[in-house]
Predict the 3D structure of the following.
Amino acid sequence: MFVVRWDCFSFALVFAVSFILSRAEVCNGGRTSSFVRNDQLSNDMPLDSDVFQVPPGYNAPQQVHITQGDHLGKGVIISWITQDEPGSSLVLYRAENSELKSSAEGIVLTYKYFNYTSGYIHHCTIRDLESDTKYYYEVGIGNTSRQFWFITPPEVGPDVAYTFGLVGDLGQTHDSNRTLTHYELNPAKGQTLLFVGDLSYADAYPFHDNSRWDTWGRFIERNAAYQPWIWTAGNHEIDFLPDIGEVIPFKPYVHRYHVPYKASGSTSPFWYSIKRASAYIIVMSSYSAYGKYTPQYKWLEKEFPKVNRTETPWLIVLMHCPFYSSYVHHYMEGESMRVMYEPWFVEYMVDVVFAGHVHAYERSERISNIAYNVVNGLCTPIRDPSAPVYITIGDGGNLEGLVTEMTEPQPSYSAYREASFGHGILDIKNRTHAHFSWHRNQDGYAVEADSLLLHNRYWTVSEESAVAGM
Ligand SMILES: *[C@@H]1O[C@H](CO)[C@@H](O)[C@H](O)[C@H]1NC(C)=O
Ligand SMILES: *[C@@H]1O[C@H](CO)[C@@H](O)[C@H](O)[C@H]1NC(C)=O
Ligand SMILES: *[C@@H]1O[C@H](CO)[C@@H](O)[C@H](O)[C@H]1NC(C)=O
Ligand SMILES: *[C@@H]1O[C@H](CO)[C@@H](O)[C@H](O)[C@H]1NC(C)=O
Ligand SMILES: *[C@@H]1O[C@H](CO)[C@@H](O)[C@H](O)[C@H]1NC(C)=O
Ligand SMILES: [Fe+2]
């Protein structure tokens, strides 16, 4: 099955010449970090941990989290859960510099999963907010109310500086808590978190004990109630368990984590897009149909041409399963989707693709592998200035632990790889430059274990170089 192989080592001699030629274009080999990490499995934090505490008071809102609520960043979806009774789905909010309180009415829903019944899950979208403004908001009106705040992004525009955090495969272990703490205390100060899938890992428990979705919601509240987390669905969100009658994929996830998919013309919460500051972010679903003629394909086909790089220079794609990963675990799982969509990534000059799934960190060179046509043998990734950088950031720290086994030798498409837990920061400076850094949990908060000054694919096409690494 050489159709989908990257390294042509198993190829017949007839391919050897083209192999050597294309190989030569990717000559500076990547780095495998020799950092010695603690790779012991970490258990989930116990149920009585501080991070899982239920807020006091009758029917107090818990698991408060926010995400973008429209296409432009002037809306916010506020979600929370009440346990005792439905209570109110009202949100009261006001801008920091104003006494005038506005209100918005949301919806409340519940779901059952085997013998688990959820609390009352509230979702309320507030719209038409001022840009670049701090808002206070209050939920739980009528019973125990709680107040939080967020800051809206600046108006969409080409040179708007903005800082995104990147976390994937977080789970709820002590390592997860370290990752979140390092993200919070990183002096780079992420303003919005791009989450690349695999949230709670509740499916690790018998009958996918959904109370572990609740503990996860309480764990992330300390950050997700104050800044939007942009959601991507991973395989641990599927929760497909026909043995106990649970045959609707993604049931807990779609009830708990709403996203503004309709605002981008999508028909499904699993793929959608948002604009935020100078970025256009496309979220894809590795676990929904993506072949030709499928709803996801048809949406993406229309979506890429809509991106106006004069308005939003930075084109970012999020997905769960990486196209390029050189770890042994999950090796080539993203291959069929890569074959489908990589030509568009190159055609539309995507700047960077973030994925999770593989519990480690890896950054690729700008490479593409789209020349192959079944007979020409051109199946090796080559350097391609129009191609994205692929970053695997599945190192949030869940109970499955790190994957440490790597394919050897390190393939030339791989620029840097390390099996340590951590998070990423994408610090967009202006239309031409963005600084990406990766931060491992063992280091001080400001330390960049790997970093790259990204040059925008539309506005510049000059070479990039890694600026740190240790
Ligand atoms: C999680 O991290 C926070 C912030 O560092 C800390 O206050 C808390 O005690 C930690 N909880 C656990 C269970 O490790
Ligand atoms: C659900 O069923 C399992 C298996 O019978 C049991 O261990 C668990 O306690 C039940 N949970 C609830 C909420 O009833
Ligand atoms: C809780 O709030 C709801 C909605 O405001 C109200 O109808 C209900 O009476 C309150 N319950 C208690 C016990 O105060
Ligand atoms: C792209 O965006 C710029 C800046 O907002 C605008 O002037 C231009 O008309 C847009 N182009 C298209 C084709 O919509
Ligand atoms: C964009 O940001 C980069 C990196 O901070 C800086 O070197 C460059 O001068 C900036 N360009 C403009 C036009 O401000
Ligand atoms: Fe995964």
